[in-house]
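re: ur question from earlier - yeah i can do the single chain one, its not a big deal. heres the input i used so u can compare w yours
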Amino acid sequence: MSDSDTQTEHSEGSAENMSSANEAVTETDHRLFLVVVDASEEMKVALRFACQRARNTGGRVALFYVMEPADFQHWMAVGEKMREERREEAERILNDLASDVNEITGDMPVLYVREGTPVDELEKLIHEEPNIRILVLGAGTSKKGPGPLVTSLAGKFSGQFPVPITVVPGNLTLEQVDALT
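and the output i got, formated as tokens:
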């Protein structure tokens, strides 16, 4: 398995209890609402929307975290240590969010961690996981535009993406999201 194919998939929300998400999802055949995890405020709005939709429609939330590869290639041991630290940080963030998802939906989310570029890894995951039925993204509210992922997907795939994309305005409050779902 190459570095870009490295992924962690589990449905129990903890690094110690990792199992195959494919098996867990196939058993219940739930429609997955996929949320790309990052540090943005709009991600929180997208996550809330996905949780409410999953809860109200009998679906399940999936969280996707992409670790961008490090450019540090001088010393193999240092590069590997940096990769391990990024992986631990990804798992910590996903475990924290998994608790929030569980609180809202009553189910633990499916978690995915990959290394590579976000758009490429997202495209691969969606083609590999047939239960991902909707991609939920938050649109940024800054003058820079809706965000790099929203911009890239709208431009690159422009109507050819294999699943529907729901773009949630990042300026909505959690109460407004709840009222919409």
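The radius of gyration is 16 Å. not sure if urs matches, ping me
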